């Protein structure tokens, strides 16, 4: 995976049967509400990495269709407490 097109998210709690794409989309709506209608087109794939293990959370890889949106999410998330709360 190229770092230019992807972000890796650590610490997102994992639940059985989760829809990680839907959860990430909700998170992005909180970070960038002005892009709510375009999120389905701006986010390509979302999935967890690695094998499920007890007492640990797997990182989430988020692949974007536009680098500009990826950079926007990166910049907004660095200055926002939303990720720390969720």
Walk me through the topology.
Blueprint: E1 6-9, H1 20-31, H2 39-42, E2 43-48, E3 60-64, H3 67-78, H4 82-85
Antiparallel strand pairs: 1-3, 2-3
Task: Characterize the structure shown.
- It is a single chain.
- The protein is α+β, with helices and mostly antiparallel strands.
- The chain has one domain (6-80): L1 transposable element, RRM domain (Alpha-Beta Plaits, 2-Layer Sandwich), CATH 3.30.70.
- It is built from 4 helices and 3 strands.
- The protein has helices spanning 20-31, 39-42, 67-78, 82-85; strands spanning 6-9, 43-48, 60-64.
- A 3-stranded antiparallel sheet has the order 1-3-2.
- The longest helix is centred in the N-terminal third of the chain and has 12 residues, at 20-31.
- The protein starts with 5 loop residues before the first strand and ends with a helix.
């Amino acid at each position: 995976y190229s770092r230019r097109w992807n972000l890796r998210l650590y610490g997102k709690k994992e639940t059985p049967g989760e829809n990680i794409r839907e959860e990430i989309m909700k998170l992005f709506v909180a970070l960038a509400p002005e892009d709510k209608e375009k999120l389905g087109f701006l986010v390509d794939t979302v999935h967890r990495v690695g094998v499920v293990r007890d007492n640990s959370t797997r990182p989430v890889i988020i692949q974007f269709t536009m680098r500009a949106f990826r950079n926007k999410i990166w910049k907004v998330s660095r200055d926002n407490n939303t990720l720390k709360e969720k």
